[in-house]
Amino acid sequence: MNRSERNALLAMPFVLLAAAGLSWAGSQRGSLTAGVPVFAVASGLAFIMQWIALVPAFVLRSERFFDLTGSITYIAVAATAVALSANVDARALLLLGLVVIWATRLGSFLLRRVRKTGKDKRFDEIKRSFPRFLMTWTLQGLWVSVTLAAALAAMTTTIHRPLGLYAWVGLAIWLVGFGVEASADEQKRRFRSDPANRGGFIQSGLWSWSRHPNYFGEIVLWIGIAIIAAPVLRGFQWATMISPVFVTLLLTRISGIPMLEKRADTKWGDQPEYLAYKRRTSVLIPRPPRG
């Protein structure tokens, strides 16, 4: 066992402990099922689904259904939270609907992409090591449970309030984020489907205003979810508002932008056109290109 494998195994307890702590906070004032907090059941389901999917994925040494499993997990976890909660209200149903719409759109998009490319380069080394592969799937469970935390707290709480200004503002923000993410993904799909663009990089449409507009849209839509959830959060439940912060840090500091920027620099870093694109285009927040 090499160092990276040992580190992966050593990190596992901390990942699960973090999820357990957030589940405890989000479960306060929440519904119970068979004496167990519904929030905790839903959060635990996120990990169980990853570990079940891990088995055939490792046997086949395949990552082709990793992203699809993540999207299905979002839907299953949110639906479980609503199904097991008592006195489900309009806020819970609204949040469930938004999660289902987002996960269905993103999951189908990622499935089409991986079918076309045949692989995900991020997994070339990881899938050869069981400890690292296990850690990757476990981290996806953490990603789902933490990202959904604010929504889960609002779905499972026993405190209810009518939909009001926060809900409509949050919905408007979600719609903006969802629209930006979906539009950016579609623009990039069309760009890559054109043989004339083979080996090139997109710098048109939303991609002329931001080098990662899809990530901007995802961050914004989860901020919208958190705003919708906020009016019914109490006490330790406010810890679940880490959800949009977690998404932002993940995409801007860990697995999103840093990885893609490094890959792009390696591929096009010696091309004047790409260097000019980087100079004039915002990394994340869309804005008119600099002259």
What does this structure look like?
The chain has 291 residues and is mainly α. The protein has one domain. Helix content is 69%, strand content 1%. It has eleven helices and two strands. A two-stranded antiparallel sheet has the order 1-2. Strand 1 and strand 2 form a beta hairpin. The model has no long low-confidence stretch (mean pLDDT 92).
What is the fold's blueprint, element by element?
Elements: H1 3-27, E1 32-33, E2 36-37, H2 38-59, H3 66-84, H4 90-117, H5 130-147, H6 149-156, H7 165-193, H8 213-229, H9 242-254, H10 257-268, H11 272-280
Helix pairs in contact: 1-2, 1-5, 1-6, 2-3, 2-5, 2-6, 3-4, 3-5, 3-6, 4-6, 4-7, 6-8, 7-8, 8-9
Q: Which structural class should the secondary elements be placed in?
A: mainly alpha
What form results from the Cα inertia axes? globular
The domain count comes to 1
Give the strand content. under 5%
Percentage of helical residues? Answer: 55-70%
Order of strands, main sheet, comes to: 1-2
Q: Quick one: biggest sheet?
A: 2 strands, antiparallel
The residue-averaged pLDDT reads: 92
**How many helix segments?**
11
Elements, N to C (H/E): HEEHHHHHHHHHH
Q: Separation of termini?
A: 52 Å
Features:
single chain, mainly alpha, two-stranded antiparallel sheet, 11 helices, 2 strands, 69% helix
Summary, kept brief:
This protein has 291 residues and is mainly α.
